Amino acid sequence: MKLHQKINREVAKAFLIVSCICVLILIPWQSQKSKVLNQKLISLMQTFITNDISLLANAIFEKRTRAINIRVQKILEIDGIESVYVFDDAYRIISDAPKKPQLLQGNLHFQKARVNNLDSWTTTNSLWYLQAITAFDETLGYILIEYSLADMEKKENLSILLFTTIIVTFTLVLLLLTNRLIRKIILRPVDQLIESMAEIEKGQYGRQIDLTSKDEIGELAKKYNSMSMEIDHSYKQIENQNKQLNQTKNLLDSIINSMPSMLITINDQCRIKEWNTKAEEAAGIPGSKAIGMVLDEVFPIVGKQMEDIRNVLKSKVTQKFSKVSLMMNQKLCYMDMIVYPIVSETVEGAVIIIDDKTEVVRMEEMMIQSEKMLSVGGLAAGMAHEINNPLAGIMQTANVMTNRLTGKMDIPANRKAAETAGTTMESIRLFMEARDIPRMLNVINESGKRVADIVNNMLSFARKSDAREASHSIADLFDKTLELAATDYDLKKQYDFRIIKIRKEYEDNLPPVPCEDGKIKQVLLNILRNGAQAMQEGGTDNPMFIIRAYFEKEKKMVCMEIEDNGPGMDEETRKRVFEPFFTTKPIGMGTGLGLSVSYFIITENHGGEMAVESRPGAGAKFIIRLPLKGRG
């Protein structure tokens, strides 16, 4: 309810109260006034009767009715007297002179007065007076007079009404004037204050009120003007501070979101309070949805470290976790994680910084492999040269023996030597066939060739190939290698490449890559054979290769992936898979040079990258990247 409504209500209350007070005062005053007036009337009637009492007594005693009536008529001539009744001592009416015939009423009032021993009483609009008529202390009769109060009551009521009207009008006028003064002196300034406050509420700070009165309202206006200016000044300061805070916040947000690391802030309940763009990209969930949720629910890749994170929240001690392996976007990744506790009296929680170290780990592994290759390369070169000399002699001698004993045996030199020994060439041929010497010579030749191939592979560690490069389609290289692999069938190892399902995922419009096609096919075939053997040995149901080829714009390299659904490998095996002479196969089943030579061909001969991702029971994926510019 507004103030002016409250004032009007209070004015109405005051008006009603004053009216009630006037009525309450007038009622007893009027009652008392009526009593005084009745006494005066009774005294007046006593005076009237006293003058005629002796005459009435004589007339009653002598029973002169006419004389009694004459006296009664004279009393009726008095203004206000309505009726006069005369009774004898036996209470019989002997004369009545009402202005209106009321004999029965006179008898009734007389009987009432006699029974109740009354000498005066009032009825509606009338005052009754009864007096005994005596002579010599003897009651001769009674006179009953009725005085009309109707005119008197009209005058009194009119007087009361007039008085009340004057009081009420005066009170009402006074209250209205008071209300007007209150509105002028108080309400209007208050309305101005309210309007100004409403303007301040809308943001129009510094509003001033033009009030020059020297009363309390004026002082209030001065205080308000001063307060308004202070608010305006404070608001401008707050606006400047907010601008600075917003600028600082935007700068911090930009810095945080520009960080190459994932940054996550959590509270003491491990619920996310903030995270940057890198964390959003890694989790695939925007910050607006992630805030307030438990960390491992929206960021499951930290699930293994949740207990350690909770320990940091309890102990308030920073912890660092290096090269944590985890799967992200179906790829094996390595992360460095640092958990910083927030040390504050009002805030509890922690800041988690996660750096993707996958490429660093890959580079470290490649550097280790390269160092191993370089160290082994020097050893391989020396060993190759040392082996080449006796190997050449063995292979040359084996070839000569094969030619002399299995070729043209009937040459003169052979016959002469046989005759000198006392035998024939036919006998010698039969002897060699019986002793399986031709087969042994073939074994010597095949073994020599195999050793020669091993030596050539070892030499590839120490020098680059001089073969010329040409641009080739990776898809064509894959298809040709798969055709070659399809002919691979090993009865002893009981595997057939043709039963393996092949799924190709080639990106359209792949650019040609400068490379040595023969060596690239050798690398691809090596990986396919190893994978096929692993799936056969692991008893993989529905063995399958997924062959991918796509272009990486950032690195400007064509990427080839060969993924199988075989038994996979543990972390230790995965790290050593490219080491020379490292093999998981039994003795005699593998040399351990296939993947190491393949790694060397890709990294050294073509300036590319080669890596493997694998987990036990989850298959293996070999990744090869070749640059578009060719080797340097």
- Work out the helix count: 17
The geometry reads as rod-shaped
Rg over alpha carbons: 67 Å
CATH topology of the largest domain: Heat Shock Protein 90
Q: What secondary-structure arrangement, pairings included, does this model have?
A:
Blueprint: H1 3-61, H2 65-76, E1 81-88, E2 93-96, H3 103-116, E3 120-123, E4 126-135, E5 138-148, H4 150-201, H5 216-258, E6 262-267, E7 272-275, H6 277-283, H7 287-290, H8 295-298, H9 306-315, E8 319-328, E9 331-342, E10 349-356, H10 358-406, H11 412-420, H12 425-434, H13 437-460, E11 470-472, H14 474-486, E12 489-490, E13 495-496, E14 501-506, E15 513-515, H15 517-537, E16 544-552, E17 557-564, H16 571-576, H17 594-605, E18 609-614, E19 620-627
Parallel strand pairs: 14-16
Antiparallel strand pairs: 1-2, 1-5, 3-4, 4-5, 6-7, 6-10, 8-9, 9-10, 11-15, 12-13, 16-17, 17-19, 18-19
Describe this structure in words.
With 632 residues, this protein is of the alpha+beta class. The chain has 4 domains: 3-157, Beta-Lactamase (2-Layer Sandwich); 262-356, Beta-Lactamase, CATH 3.30.450; 364-460, no CATH class; 470-627, Histidine kinase-like ATPase, C-terminal domain (Heat Shock Protein 90, 2-Layer Sandwich). 55% of the residues lie in helices and 20% in strands. The chain has 17 helices and 19 strands. It has helices at residues 3-61, 65-76, 103-116, 150-201, 216-258, 277-283, 287-290, 295-298, 306-315, 358-406, 412-420, 425-434, 437-460, 474-486, 517-537, 571-576, 594-605, and strands spanning 81-88, 93-96, 120-123, 126-135, 138-148, 262-267, 272-275, 319-328, 331-342, 349-356, 470-472, 489-490, 495-496, 501-506, 513-515, 544-552, 557-564, 609-614, 620-627. The strands form 5 sheets. The protein has a 5-stranded antiparallel beta sheet, with helices on both faces. It has a 5-stranded antiparallel beta sheet with strand order 7-6-10-9-8, with helices on both faces. Helix 15 (517-537) packs antiparallel against helix 17. The relative contact order is 0.05. The model has no long low-confidence stretch (mean pLDDT 76).
